[in-house]
Amino acid sequence: MAHVDISRVDLNLFVVFEVIYREGNLTRASEALNLSQPAVSHALARLRDRFDDPLFERSGKKMVPTPLAKAIVERVREGLGSLESTLSDGLVFDPATAERTFTIAMRDVLEAKALPELALKLKKIAPNIRFRSVAIARREIESALVRGRVDFVADVLIPVSKQLNHILLGSEDLSVMMSKDHPIAKYPERLDLATYLTAKHVQVSSRPDGPGIEDLALSRLGVSRDIAMRCQHYYAAAKVVEQSDWLLTLPSTYANALGDESNANSNNVVLPLPFKTEPLEVHLYWHNKAEQDPAMIWCKQQIEKLLLGLG
């Protein structure tokens, strides 16, 4: 066989080859690679031309490997594994001197808990490390991690593919916030389910419509509440209830931070929710490949320490 100049070969084609071999289906391969099916087909066509062999033959919905594909797959996998190991082993991460930016998607509730502590910690142990906190829609979580738009996501439990890993960071209950001038604020024992349902409410959600966790709990009781306003952020909602007799239901940690009596800027009080709901669970998500990067491993550890338990 004639010598092949490796600089003239697109090594990404072997990544496509391995995924098609593993998935046995072009549609699933395109999803795993986060590429369009025509792009995967084009890559396969280039490989077929390179090897002068079909490599895979269609049988129904399956792509069946040819004898040549079976003969080379282990060498391809070994080569890709060696490249990944070389890149990973060559990385040395020292937070005290490293310069890097990490991006984490999280809700404003977690921002309020994590970012102040994170800023204080980074100042001491990693002065040149930068963090970006962004918001993404839940339907975009997997694609954002696969494409590298974000490094980590902290959000509620959602179904994800095997490309992603996740752990439970913690869970917490909900509380009710109201103005200090609200009639119930002076007589907190009066906040029962009937009183809660009589009041008007502010709901916080990034979605234009749909129920919150408290609404799902109420529906199981066969009742519903009167939502007078819907907004995107708890801070804005807290300002709304401060100027009205409406109620705001929110995670207890954030409620206590916003309504803390020691906070001179707060004119709200926080009371327990008068009915039971499922705990609000938060998970941390990351792509499998992050586990090969010492910097990403360090970052994950910092996030876990700050958010584990959420209390």
Shape: elongated
Question: How many individual helices?
Answer: 12
Main sheet characteristics:
5 strands, mixed
Extract low-pLDDT stretches: none
Average residue-wise pLDDT: 87
Question: Proportion of β residues?
Answer: 15-25%
List the helices and strands and how they pair.
Elements: H1 12-23, H2 26-33, H3 37-51, E1 56-59, E2 62-65, H4 67-89, E3 100-105, H5 108-125, E4 129-134, H6 141-147, E5 152-155, E6 164-172, E7 174-179, H7 183-186, H8 193-198, E8 200-204, H9 213-220, E9 226-231, H10 234-242, E10 247-251, H11 252-259, E11 268-272, E12 280-287, H12 294-307
Parallel strand pairs: 3-4, 3-5, 8-9, 8-10
Antiparallel strand pairs: 1-2, 5-12, 6-12, 7-10, 7-11
Helix pairs in contact: 1-2, 1-3, 1-4, 2-3, 5-12
Describe the model.
The chain has 311 residues and is of the alpha/beta class. The protein folds into three domains: 6-89, Winged helix-like DNA-binding domain superfamily/Winged helix DNA-binding domain (Arc Repressor Mutant, subunit A, Orthogonal Bundle); 100-172 and 281-307, 3-Layer(aba) Sandwich (D-Maltodextrin-Binding Protein, domain 2), CATH 3.40.190.10; 174-278, D-Maltodextrin-Binding Protein, domain 2 (3-Layer(aba) Sandwich). The chain has helices at 12-23, 26-33, 37-51, 67-89, 108-125, 141-147, 183-186, 193-198, 213-220, 234-242, 252-259, 294-307; strands at 56-59, 62-65, 100-105, 129-134, 152-155, 164-172, 174-179, 200-204, 226-231, 247-251, 268-272, 280-287. The strands form three sheets. Strands 4-3-5-12-6 form a five-stranded mixed sheet. Helix 1 crosses helix 3, helix 2 crosses helix 3 and helix 5 packs across helix 12 (294-307). The longest helix has 23 residues, at 67-89.
